[in-house]
Amino acid sequence: MQSLPLPLTLTARLSPVVVLAAAGWALSSGPLAPAPKTEHTADGRTAATQSPTAPSTSAASRTYAAAPAPCGSVTTKTITALVPGAKTAGKEIPSTDTKARRTCSWNALKGFDYRWLDVSFELTASDEAARKSYKERLADKSGGGAVPGLGDAGYSVVNLTTEDKQQTREGVVIAQVSNALVVVTYNGSDFESKKAPSTDVINKGAIKAAKEAVAALEGGQKV
Prior knowledge:
The chain is α+β, with helices and mostly antiparallel strands. It is built from five helices and eight strands; from the N terminus they run ααβαβββαββββα.
C-alpha cells in the first residue's frame, strides 16, 4: 500500500517543537489551526458554579496533591480502539512540574487512517482556581455542551477543519474535578477519501477517554 504525505497541519503536529509547545497546554490553541466550524455538543447539565453564599474557606479546599501518570490513565483496550496501530504505552510530554501538569500522547497512521489522542492533567491550588480555569477554557471553546456525570463539571465540543481539501475532525473534552482539570483532545483524518471521521465517532471517543482519565485521577494521590 502506498503511503501518502501528511497535510501540513498534521506534519507540524508531529514535529518535536510543536509537541513541546502543546505540552504547555493543549487547549491554548487546538492542534489544528484556523477558525473551526463547531458541529456538535453533548446534551446534559450545565457547568457547576460556586454559590455566592459559599463560605470563604471553600476557595482554599482541594482534593488532589499530584497529577496521575497520564500514559496509564486510559486502558490499553481503549487506546487500541481509538488509535489503531499506536503504541499503547503512549509518550509522555516533558513537564517542568510533573506534580502540577502531565500530558500523554498517542498517534498513528494505519493505512490511510490517522488518529491522535492527548490526555492532560492540570492541578491548581484550590477548587475555586480550577473552576475559574474551567470557565475560561469553555469561553475559548464555545459552541459545545455539558457532559453529564463527568467530574464536578464536564464539557465537550467537536470541530471540523479543512486544508487542501483534506478534512480533520477534532473533539475536546474538559472536566473539572475538585482542584484538577482533565483535558482530552482526539482527532482524525482519512487520507484516502479526504474525509474526516464522523462527529459521533470523535465525540464518543473523546468522552470515553475522558471518563477513564477522570477515574484515574479520582483513584490517585489525594491531599
